[in-house]
Amino acid sequence: MQEQSFAWQQALSEMITSPLELLSLLNLCPSQLPWQWDKNFPLRVTQSFVARMQKGDPLDPLLRQVLSIKEESKLSNNYSSDPLKETEHNPVPGLLHKFKGRVLLTFTSSCAVHCRYCFRRHFPYQENNPGRKGWSQALDYIANHPDIVEVILSGGDPLMAQDQFLALFLKQLSDIKHVKILRMHTRLPVMIPQRICHSLLKVLDDTEQDIVMVYHINHPAEIIPSIAQGVTALKQQGVTVLNQTVLLQGVNDNTECLKQLSLNLFQAGILPYYVHLLDAVQGASHFSVSHEEARKLQGSLRAELPGYLVPKFVREIPYHHSKMPLDLLP
After folding, report:
1. Domain containing 66: what range?
2. Residue 1 falls within a domain, yes or no?
3. Which of 23, 122, 144, 268 has minimal Cβ neighbours within 10 Å of its Cβ?
4. Euclidean distance between CA atoms 320 and 279, whole angstroms
5. Count of structural domains within the chain
6. How far apart are the first and last CA of the chain?
7. How far apart are CA 27 and CA 33, in angstroms?
8. What is the CATH number for 271?
9. Which residues of 19-39 are buried (b: 16+ CB within 10 A; e: fewer)?
10. CB burial of residue 71 (10 Å; 0-12, 13-18, 19+)
11. Angstrom distance (rounded) from CA 132 to CA 137
């Protein structure tokens, strides 16, 4: 873990945003892949993540997650720009209230990577970015709903926020006594392990709520020793660390990959939590895995792993009261 809190910001400034540069770094000829420029959701990936890709392999599962290909431009039936109908659960800017007892804040609008399957790739962030001084409306909403016991920081990626701003916001949140749990959904410590720095740890240590950090790791090759070091530091602060995975065709849609992912996660101190079936966001249909195939994978994992290492296979369905377990889907 880096001691300097600015190390992660330096890594952000060195992100790769050109597909041609990315392919060159991987010793790939542009003609080997059906890649494209995407001005609306352009390439963003860190050098650290690229270093984990296999050079010369156009089918590398990490590359597939970040490089825009021509299939994204094809319109697909039953896919939309708002697959979870989130705009219908957006009572005040920056806040989504979909499930009883918890709310989600789109704490930032940016990420350290643009995942090609992102269900919020079309999300209206401009309308949901209150900025440093604009969170009072969301905090008032939470304060006026005493049934809310958990606040989820998402985005974008909440850890893209500066630690000083994060500390200020969490201090205000701590005044709302019925909020007992703070959950953060983040991919940043995967893209930039240095993000788990001393200043962030101090912010978390000063937070009154119980903290759950949910990482987003899809493939065992994403896990490197520095990620585990950051997890150790978080757990020493009493943070619970879980992982959610998206089931993606051509990335992790086989038993051996998912099995090794669970084992590697556990070795790094992270408990496998969810495997999400793909949200039907326009531009991502080529990642889809059928319910039938997902059930086979779930059954295989149950046969191969102890129960505590088998993540829950789920799909989020608009207007439903919770995520639906795969076993209950038609």
Report:
1. 7-75+82-328
2. no
3. 144
4. 14
5. 1
6. 45
7. 12
8. 3.20.20.70
9. beebbeebebeeeebebeebe
10. middle
11. 12
Instruction: Answer whether residue 118 is part of any domain.
Output: yes
| pLDDT tens, position by position, 46-83 | 999 999 999 999 999 999 999 999 999 999 999 999 98
Whether 47 maps to a domain, the answer reads yes
- Whether 2 is in a domain gets the answer no
For the stretch 34-50, pLDDT in tens is: 999 999 999 999 999 99
- Tokens 């439903």, residue located: 320
Q: Is the pTM of this model over 0.70?
A: yes
pLDDT at 134: 77
Find out whether 323 and 316 touch, Cβ atoms under 8 Å: yes
What pLDDT does 4 receive? Answer: 54
Task: At 54, list the tokens.
Answer: 């296999």
Q: How many degrees, rounded to 5, is the angle at CA 187 between CA 166 and CA 117?
A: 130
Q: Which long-range contacts (CB under 8 A, 24 or more apart) does 54-61 make?
A: 54/26, 55/25, 55/26, 55/27, 55/28, 56/26, 56/27, 56/28, 57/26, 58/28, 58/32, 58/33, 59/250, 60/26, 61/218, 61/219, 61/221, 61/250, 61/251, 61/252, 61/257
Length of the chain, in residues: 330
pLDDT of residue 2: 45
CA–CA dist 218, 222 (Å, integer): 7
Give dist(CA 215, CA 270) in Å, integer: 8
Region of poorest pLDDT, from 154-163, 249-258, 259-268, 302-311? 154-163
**Nearest Cα to 150, choosing from 179, 120, 110?**
179
The secondary element (H helix, E strand) that includes residue 271 is strand 271-276
DSSP calls for 82-123: -TT-GGGG-SBTTEEEEETTEEEEE--S--SS--TT-TTTT-
